Amino acid sequence: MYNVRGSGQMKALDDVSFTLRSGRTIGLVGQSGSGKSTIAKILIQLETPTSGEVLLDGAPIPRRGKALRSYRQQLRMVFQDPFASLNPYHSIRYHIERPLRLGGLAANDQVDGEVRRLLERVRLVPDAVIDRRPHELSGGQRQRVAIARALASRPTLLVADEPVSMLDVSIRLGVLNLLADLQREEGLGVLYITHDLATARHFSDEIIVLNQGRIVEQGPADDVILDPQNPYTRELRAASPDPERHFASAAGNLGGAQ
Ligand SMILES: Nc1ncnc2c1ncn2[C@@H]1O[C@H](COP(=O)(O)OP(=O)(O)O)[C@@H](O)[C@H]1O
Ligand SMILES: [Mg+2]
């Protein structure tokens, strides 16, 4: 429930329930304003739901202390805007070191090596970026840094809210393929939020369709996109460029250097 000036309260989500499992990707699709980011914000505790709860391994999110820190380490977020999510005053090294130090995840003499390993993990050349500031990098490189920072705390779950919609079209697939590779290799559970049905289908096991804060359809990705049952999903599909298009996995390498 959001308080909206002049018009009282507005229910952004209603009766939304789903389970994100490690090793699986859920695509969360819906038009702008359907409530996708509100779900992400509730998961990372930027918003508190008026009712309902988030459970991790069956237990409610702890309110404080070590258990809360552990929740925050386990569930990381990649934001839509790679320009806003990194601090312009700090180096790339600083951004990735921080979660390592805060989480006590690397001894002092191992921090540099771990930062470099994480940069390689997102297919950046450590020497080329480690001492640079965010503005010296391209949008795609910045989003890779944001992903490396998320991985630094060794999460089990990753929420990616429109992670490529602000990037040049030519490098989007590279970043999505990277996320898919990391998801497989690390056994991450990923909530992939997007309004693009084609990539939602390609990169997700399951799809949830959100309309005006309610889940209108949910199921295996191919079923939902190729044979939608709900009229709203059919509308989305009809309005979408080509939800049946396929992606060559080799395309990932094209975006790798961006
Ligand atoms: N902080 C806020 N205060 C009031 N209304 C909000 C706020 N954030 C989002 N909303 C409203 O909640 C609805 C869902 O928004 P959002 O979750 O951002 O949708 P999406 O990410 O699918 O575009 C929209 O109608 C939006 O205007
Ligand atoms: Mg949004």
* CATH 2nd-level architecture of the domain at 12-85 and 157-253: 3-Layer(aba) Sandwich
Strand content: 15-25%
Mean pLDDT: 90
What's the helix count?
11
Give the radius of gyration. 19 Å
Output the keywords.
258 residues; alpha/beta; Rossmann fold; 10 strands; 40% helix; disordered C terminus; binds adenosine-5'-diphosphate; binds magnesium ion
List the helices and strands and how they pair.
Elements: E1 2-4, E2 8-10, E3 25-29, H1 36-43, E4 55-56, E5 59-60, H2 65-74, E6 75-78, H3 92-102, H4 111-121, H5 126-129, H6 139-152, E7 157-161, H7 169-186, E8 189-194, H8 197-203, E9 206-211, E10 214-220, H9 221-226, H10 231-239, H11 251-255
This protein binds adenosine-5'-diphosphate and magnesium ion (MG).
Residues 2, 4, 10, 12, 30, 32-38 line the site of adenosine-5'-diphosphate.
Characterization of this structure:
Helices cover 40% and strands 17% of the residues. The protein is of the alpha/beta class and 258 residues long. The strands form three sheets. It has a six-stranded mixed β-sheet with strand order 6-7-8-3-9-10, with helices on both faces. The longest helix is centred in the C-terminal third of the chain and has 18 residues, at 169-186. The termini are far apart. Mean pLDDT is 90; it is low at 250-258. Residues 36-37, 161 line the site of magnesium ion.
